[in-house]
Automatic annotation (TrEMBL):
Residues 405-414 have a biased composition (Basic residues). Residues 378-414 are annotated as: Disordered. InterPro entries: AAA_dom, P-loop_NTPase, ParA/MinD_ATPase. It comes from Cohnella soli. Gene3D superfamilies: P-loop containing nucleotide triphosphate hydrolases. This is CpaE family protein. Residues 138-227 form the AAA domain. The lineage of its organism: Bacteria, Bacillati, Bacillota, Bacilli, Bacillales.
């Protein structure tokens, strides 16, 4: 069985290449040479390392791989993924790089097509992050055009569902005015994301990292709280340090960001597997919502999903549909109903309410299913188990735009 390691700072690209390579062997991702060595020690050998050209200190990494990772006595092959200027590339070939391939990896280009996949091996993609038992699934960012749109409500429930299903999920509250832990009914905290001010916090050991978290008893979701109004913003670097520290041990991370298009979003977007923009249906919020959605879509078109939260009737979706159509935004659009009863009861997170009794629970489960978060046995029923579950609402093919958006924004995407 071939063993491959992929290194990429962009979670989306990483996931895509891991998927491609998993047809040809066992694939791991790693963030340091130590983690690669751990993989080698566990697996016995490493056949090839795929190093994205966006990884810092590439030359140094290539040299270290040559020294530390060997298969049958000779060094593991190092392939670069991406683009690079010819001079730097020549230097890297000298350092031991075998070839450069475009993203996404084309197996024919790197000679993998000659090896047939082993049919007896598990075909499921099993991605281990250097450290045993952490399985990388999701890094989901929640953002919104303004305060009170529902980020914390939805992100905490999303985290809780993943935690219940996988036994392993973390919510990072990266909103300086955030109250995620309170929303989960937790009353006190001692540590917060502020502990991640310095770059070296990325390397904290597992024990220290766990000590900073509080646990939501009902679901097992871990929470890294916000400092709660002690600061006026969470610097992008701080949010990144926290994400990179916990990413080593947590496969599933949900991040609750501050409203607006923030520097923290700009920095974390590349690590994300999914980006969710939560907005309200009120017409006077539409302009702000569209501005935000346009920016998010420009920044990460493939990762973006939109949730219109607190819908009182289906018609309220129409203006935003028209907006998406006019700006050619193809991001999936879903909605959640206005649900005062569900939020009035304090016993359970609404998503855990019996779906037959709660439209909100049903619709949120359907959205999570659309995100690939589903488990028929546990928190989220499958479509067949839950025939009433609403489908994701696609942007309709051609609602005729009345042109008001053009007037409002002075430009229309082409
Ligand atoms: N679908 C809904 N129906 C009714 N009430 C809702 C719904 N979603 C959220 N709420 C309520 O709206 C309020 C704001 O929600 P929430 O705190 O999640 O927003 P937020 O985007 O995190 O706000 P902030 O930017 O201030 O952090 C809360 O009181 C919440 O209970
Ligand atoms: Mg919030």
């Amino acid at each position: 069985m071939k063993v491959f390691i992929v290194i990429d700072v962009d979670a989306g690209r990483l996931a895509q290449n891991i998927k491609i390579l998993s047809d040809y062997g066992k694939v791991f991702d790693a963030r340091s040479v130590q983690e690669m060595v751990q993989v080698r020690e566990r697996e016995g050998h490493v056949d090839a390392v795929f190093l994205s050209t966006n990884v810092p200190n590439i030359r140094e990494t290539v040299v270290k791989i040559g020294k530390n990772l060997r298969a049958d006595g000779s060094p593991a092959h190092v392939f670069l993924i991406g683009e690079m200027n010819p001079d730097t590339l020549a230097d890297l070939f000298d350092a031991g790089v075998r070839d450069i391939t475009r993203h996404p990896i084309n197996p024919v280009e790197v000679g993998l097509h000659k090896k047939l996949p082993t049919l007896t091996d598990e075909r499921e993609i099993s991605v281990h992050f250097g450290t045993p038992q952490a399985t990388r699934e999701k890094i989901i960012l929640f953002c919104s055009p303004k305060g009170g749109d529902g980020k914390t409500t939805i992100s905490t429930q999303t985290g809780a569902v993943i935690a219940k299903m996988t036994g392993q999920a973390l919510l990072i509250d990266a909103d300086y005015a955030g109250n995620a832990y309170r929303k989960l009914g937790i009353t006190s905290m001692t540590h917060s994301i502020i502990d991640f001010e310095k770059e070296d916090s990325q390397l904290l050991d597992r024990h220290s990292l766990e000590n900073k978290l509080i646990t939501h008893q009902q679901s097992g979701l871990k929470v890294l709280p916000s400092p709660w109004n002690e600061h006026t913003s969470i610097p992008a670097k701080m949010a990144e340090n926290a994400l990179l520290a916990y990413r080593r041990f947590y496969g599933n991370i949900v991040v609750d960001l501050h409203q607006g298009y923030t520097p923290a979003f700009e920095t974390l977007k590349d690590y994300a597997t999914d980006i969710i923009c939560v907005c309200r249906p009120e017409e006077d919020e539409l302009e702000r919502a569209m501005e935000m959605i346009i920016r998010l879509y420009e920044a990460a078109p493939d990762k973006l999903r939109i949730i219109v939260n607190g819908l009182r009737n289906e018609k309220e979706l129409q203006p935003i549909r028209v907006g998406l159509e006019q700006f050619k935004i193809k991001a999936p659009l879903s909605s959640l109903p206005y649900a005062d009863k569900e939020f009035a009861q304090r016993k359970e997170l609404p998503v855990f309410l019996e779906p037959k009794r709660s439209l909100y629970s049903r619709e949120l489960r359907a959205i999570l299913k659309g995100l690939g978060i589903t488990n028929s046995k546990d928190a989220v029923p499958t479509a067949t188990a839950e025939p009433g579950a609403s489908k994701e609402k696609e942007t309709p093919s051609a609602p005729k735009g009345p042109g008001w958006l053009r007037k409002k924004f002075g430009r229309v995407a082409d």
